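Issue 218. Parser rejects a valid record. Input:
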Amino acid sequence: MTKILLTGGCGFIGSNLGPLLIDQGFEVTILDNFSKGDISYLPKHDQFEIIEADIGDEEAVYNAAKGKDAVIHLAALGSVVESVVNPNDNFISNAEGTFKVLNAARRAGIKRCVFASTGGAIMGNTPPPVNETSLPKPISPYGASKLAGEGYCSAFSHAYDMNITALRFANVIGPISAHKKGAITVFIRALMNNKPITIFGDGKATRDFLFVKDLCKGIVSALIKNKPGFNVYHLASGEEVSVKQLAKTLCEVAEKPDHEIRFESKRKGEVERNFADYKKAKEELGFLPSFTLDEALKITWNWFLEHEGPES
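Output the parser choked on:
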């Protein structure tokens, strides 16, 4: 049985990924500081060893990594807006934190790592569709921190003969995301509480949205394939969707097609257009999204209705 250390395993993606890893026959140890995640997010949490620690504590990561066969590194501060407000914390968590996870893995003799990068923030306003040969041009501290993480992944792979795969995630949709601060969560809460949906900018900015189950299958595939050396892949839908279109689709899903949408000034650090070509991931990892945007939004909407409900 392959033993996995999963950092950030009690967050949105981790709590969806962990059970899939268990189902695939992996033994999973989760390391999480619970600043964003919670054990309650994790279905059947008794199937995991859970360690409360911060990735900034390299000795704690090293002790958790000893005896493991691979590391999946998800733990990060993931908000573009918050990174603009507080770039220092973002750097410490994402750039320094990634270095410490990689160094702990090296010290523990682990040769297989999967790193959660980002497909939008790391590319900035590079003309889409982006792919693995596109030049990253981050315009936010968050994007820069993920690019720094990829740099260390490349360096550790070459310097210490480690197989490290960096996965550039699209904007992820799905259950167990109530604690996230992204557009989808904000839009859903506005709909649930009969408040206007607020869009920053004119709504023409575009994103690439991917259902969390499709993303998790891609992560597991990257882990199993264990491509030699350092490799980068975009995990995306390949579809360009405007923020305004996203809001209108959610209104339809919620059966509130005439719900009010307001527009406010654009925020710093946010990309204008982004979507990715996932051809390389399809060819080398067998990655192929199976959920449409409508399906992903319906599942997410129904999860919010079941688990959160309107404000009292």
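Fixed in the parser; the record now loads. The mean pLDDT is 95.
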